[in-house]
Structures are given as C-alpha cells and as structure tokens.
C-alpha cells in the first residue's frame, strides 16, 4: 500500500499536461492534484496520530467533495476575486463527466471505509472489541484497489475529453 498511495499525484500531473486545453478538465485535475498534494504533505504528521489518522482520511475525502463538486461555486468566487475571464469560461463549460462521477464514488467508498475503521479503532482502544478486523484485513486491500481505480479513472477521463479548438484565447490576461 505504501507505494500505491503515492502514484495518484504523478498521474494527475501527467493527465493535466494532456488535458490542458480543456478548461473543465484542467480545473478538475488541478483541484484533484491540490487535494492529493495536501494529503501527501500532511501524511508524515497525521500518521503519528494513530487513532485519529482515519478521521483525517475522512476529512480529506470530504474536502474532495467540497472542492470538486463545488467547482462552479469556487469558479464564481474566484471570478469575483480576480475578474479573470478564465473563470467565466469555466462556469459556462462546466459539466460532470462519467469518469468524474466514478472518482467521486471511489472517494465516497474511501470515506465510508475510513469512517468505519476509525469507529472500529476507537472501540478497540476502549476495549469494546478484541480484534479490529476491518483495520487488519480489509482497509489496505480496499485502499490499494481504490487508488489504482482512481488512477485508471483519471487516465480514462483524459482519453474521453471532447476535442477543443487549437487556440486558447481565454488564457490571455484581461
């Protein structure tokens, strides 16, 4: 599981290079990469929490939903703040693809399993149960599969992008 957890950020960055011309894909991949970067940057700190590490994982999954599913709201707020035409174009071209919905589902599964493991660890620490089965036998295989499926969904996402025009006129400054 150790190495599989680190593969998502490079995949997102490579996908971002391929999907740069599509504003919707660019915004989605930048959001996803930012969340992955925060998660990886905080990993050495939160792993020391032991019991509450899984609550951190739940928080990161919720953050994903707030950032990714709230992209239109964030685009509107950033437009008000910066006045950049990019954010207007982003709001006009916003659409949730099947691959994005699949990634949302993967994060939902991760949220549920981490929440269950957190409760299980709390029960184990407080001597309610003797063996944390989800933690011991289920968590790592499921998280590994979820990381691999997320990478595959991101790769599928960039292959299913609509063709855009050759010019990127919205990238010029105001």
Automatic annotation (TrEMBL):
Transmembrane regions: 6-23, 28-47, 53-74, 101-125, 137-158
Keyword terms: Membrane, Transmembrane, Transmembrane helix
Name of the protein described by the UniProt record: Uncharacterized protein
Organism of provenance: Pseudoalteromonas rubra
């Amino acid at each position: 599981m150790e190495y599989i957890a680190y593969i998502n950020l490079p995949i997102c960055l490579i996908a971002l290079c391929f999907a740069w011309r599509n504003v919707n894909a660019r915004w989605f991949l930048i959001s996803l990469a930012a969340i992955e970067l925060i998660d990886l940057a905080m990993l050495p700190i939160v792993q020391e929490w032991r019991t509450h590490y899984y609550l951190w994982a739940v928080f990161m999954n919720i953050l994903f939903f707030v950032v990714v599913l709230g992209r239109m709201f964030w685009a509107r707020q950033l437009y008000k703040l910066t006045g950049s035409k990019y954010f207007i174009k982003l709001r006009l071209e916003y659409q949730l693809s099947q691959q994005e919905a699949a990634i949302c589902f993967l994060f939902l599964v991760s949220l549920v399993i981490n929440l269950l493991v957190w409760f299980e660890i709390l029960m184990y620490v407080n001597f309610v149960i003797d063996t944390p089965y989800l933690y011991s036998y289920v968590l790592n295989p499921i998280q590994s599969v979820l990381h691999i499926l997320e990478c595959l969904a991101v790769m599928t996402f960039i292959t299913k992008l609509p063709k855009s025009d050759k010019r990127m006129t919205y990238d010029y400054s105001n």
